[in-house]
Amino acid sequence: MAEKVRYSDEELEEFKGIINEKLATARQDYNQMMRQLMNEDGNDVDDTSPTYKILEEGSATQSKEELMQQAARMQKFIKGLEAALVRVQNKTYGIDRMTGELIPKERLRIVPHATLSVQSKEGRKH
User: What percent of the chain is predicted at pLDDT more than 70?
Assistant: First the structure.
């Protein structure tokens, strides 16, 4: 029996569902982070409070920086998921970009934007 070179259309549909689900959640989380960064959710007095609260401002700045980093990571994750959808459409999804072999389904269900098997990823570190 010949080795499988790509996932079937049914399998690709399953992965597409997983990716779309994660993409919807990621976009929702990203939008919430951006609203927080733009201060759209709060009716607080951060922008009008006296400047003698230096410690609180320092803490708020650090939180904002962390939130910006999280938002950047989330944006990268969203781009990875969108690229995975393109690969599903092109029927190249789930193929290890180093070896050309299929990435195990278990890995793709957990990391749907993966382009490397665990072995290939670990091999790159050495």
Answer: 79
Beta bridge partners of 102: 95
Tokens 């950047």 found at: 72
List all residues 6 or more positions away from 32 whose beta carbon is below 8 Å from its beta carbon: none
CB 103 within 8 A of CB 96: yes
Query: Under 8 Å CB-to-CB from 44, ≥6 apart: which residues?
Result: none
Most distant CA atoms of the chain, gap in Å: 75
Q: Rounded CA gap, 32 and 14, in Å?
A: 28
Q: Residue 47: its pLDDT value, please? A: 52
Side chain identity at residue 85, one-letter code: L
The CA-based dihedral angle spanning residues 64, 68, 73, 78, taken in that order and rounded to the nearest 10 degrees: 120
- pLDDT tens-digit map of 63-97: 888 999 999 999 999 999 999 999 999 999 999 99
